[in-house]
Amino acid sequence: MFLMQKATDITESDLARVFAFPATSAPTVRATMVASIDGAATIDGRSGILGGDGDQLVFHTMRRLADAIVVGAKTAILEGYGPAKSDDDTPPPTLVLTSRSLDIPDDFTTAAAPNVLIATCASAPADARERLTAAGATLVDCGTDDVDPAALVAELASRGLNRIDIEGGPRLLASFAAAGVLDQLILTVSPTLALGDAPRIAHGAEVPLPDQELPLPFRLPRPMRATTVLGDDDGFLYQLWETVRDGDATAGR
Ligand SMILES: NC(=O)c1ccc[n+]([C@@H]2O[C@H](COP(=O)([O-])OP(=O)(O)OC[C@H]3O[C@@H](n4cnc5c(N)ncnc54)[C@H](OP(=O)(O)O)[C@@H]3O)[C@@H](O)[C@H]2O)c1
Given this model, what pLDDT does residue 88 score? Predict the structure, then answer.
């Protein structure tokens, strides 16, 4: 069966309600990403060109709702991330940079700012670890050779950071999706065919194809279902997808 829902006007102030984290004390891991209609996560090596005013609004609303923002160190350096800020009196979210190599240049001062964590792994080079620690950075080990997404979520939860927003990039998102710890995806679809050979929003890690005798959606790898779809006057779509897990009684409805 197909569904066509009646349009409802959504104002800027409604966004926080529409995209609220689930009311649970357990950790919720969501990703906030943008892609072109044909699935490109970047144009000219950056995601910024794909966005618009509405996308920025959604992006910043997601930040306000989160306790922790997790981003690959390379993306944070490339996109010039500063520490997360708060618009009001509430504490800002913690910015978590992930890196195996700790290849973070000294002039990227965000790495050593307060309220910033670097999530790394035991095999990270000792000299880089010492350099960053001496500069004032806080490092946490969450795995042996990679940052293990489940270990990172447990580490953040132990710090009371349960609403987790992953801002990419594509390799980091793929590792979370492959590990099975991604609960939600907020996807902006930018009204363009980007062409070219840019990565998709989840790019890299692979998961085995499920048994093709299973019913939909369980025969799909990492199935999700869209629970909310918004559009704006510029032609962008904003989609809230939720992971469907084995035994989810609402799957397929
Ligand atoms: N469309 C979007 O919504 C969106 C969002 C964000 C970024 N982007 C774009 O994506 C591009 C970058 O793509 P990318 O896939 O290379 O970025 P990425 O996902 O940020 O992955 C590379 C960075 O993340 C770290 N990393 C990734 N997985 C890790 C893991 N399991 N454990 C530890 N560290 C991990 C890497 O650290 P090490 O190399 O040190 O291991 C590296 O710093 C940029 O062009 C950026 O603009 C797009």
Answer: 78
